[in-house]
Sequence to fold (462 residues):
Amino acid sequence: MIIRIPTTMKKDQSRRKFISQLSTGTLALSATTSVPVFGTILSHKNDQLAILGGTPIRTAGRIGPSWPYIDERMIEAMVKTTKSGIWSRIQSSNSQVSQLEKEFAKQIGAGYCVGTGSGTQALSTCVEAMGIGPGDEVITSPYTDMGTISSILTSRALPVMVDLDLESYQLDPDEVEKKVNKNTKAIMPVHIMGLPANMERIMAIAKKHGLKVIEDSCQAPFARYQGQAIGTIGDLGCFSFQASKAIACGEGGAVVGKDEALMERCFTVQNRGASRQGKNETIGPKYRMTEFEGTLLLNQLPGAKERFLKRNENANYLTSQLKDFPGLVPQKKYPGTESGSYYHYAWSYHKEHFNGVDRAVFLKAMAAEGVSVGSYIKNGLHREPWVDHILSLNEYKALYTADRIKDYKSELHLPNCDRICNETLVSFWGSGSLLGTTEEMDQIIAAVMKIYDNRNQLKKVS
Ligand SMILES: Cc1ncc(COP(=O)(O)O)c(C=O)c1O
Fold:
């Protein structure tokens, strides 16, 4: 049974205190009892957990509207593009892709934008356009999609992974600074979950050491930090429009930046080395976005900001509802974070508040209540086989000294990242699910609180 309690608790009475009062039974709740609280609280004391045969909180399947987002405007535009026979940007001076580039740059306040076939391609384009290559090092996060690392590897540079801030899951700037050496050329912060990394510190470190910054904003379209859009703070920023992302076309990506000459180099690189003027100038793969991708994206941009705002509203609601609850602590935001893209909404799980049971048990109990949450990235990328693979390649052995390779391996001790992957992180996918109704957000909270209130039952779950 869900009991909603009115929002009249005295300001100085914290929810944590209130919850502990509930759990010690000093407040007897019933459907008719009105207990003064701030925020809304849902009590399920003495309910049987669904994982042990009780009634689930939710039976309606995945939270939120169906995904990816599709509307009539997008469908009509796709039909039009198909019928037009203009399927590549080079067939038109006013292509869908070039219109998308202008519109996206305008919406996030970037100077210039170049479309690509994926976020990975966008990142690779930046690495190549900045002239980062064999023998160079790029500092980045181990807690990310392989596309981040791949963009560095395809230029035969060395991705140097540093440990994370345990509470934000973002690069720890102190660790970044420790890893700068004479071969470091750039920092590639990843705005994980679509929330801003600590850009103030990262930009300061980059300035101090003369490094470039490529923002991996693949999860962070429209997010804002200290008055700027994420992706527009560093030298270059990259976005992914892969199917699970907030703005999606299956596979797609974009580079943004304010330096016109550098952005022209990005265009040339992704255009297999040929400039806009048709001169074959440099090394570059063919990473062009197609007109079909451009059409889908251009025609979903009109409502994309509204959906972004809705995700923020729901994320803020969830945060406020579990305020001061010590069992699940929301992803830390750095000062100056104005909004996030919430590719995932994430919490740190503290098992000591759930009768000591491991996160896996909590996840199973949540799934049984009908609310699907997960642990997101299973392994930090420092634990994946590519590390040994590249270090065994003759090219890496030739480019990096034996001492550097030895140190590189020994520096892959990243305990915070391991802890986040193995023990603490709980997240649910935001692109679609954070567009759910308030009632659905309440069900997420209700499932958490039901498990918390009945945590003594968790020991029975194997
Ligand atoms: C943080 C991050 N970086 C890079 C990528 C790579 O983007 P794409 O899948 O579009 O190549 C992704 C996509 O999942 C991502 O989430």
About this structure: Residues 1-39 have pLDDT under 50 and may be disordered. The radius of gyration is 24 Å. The longest strand covers residues 344-349.
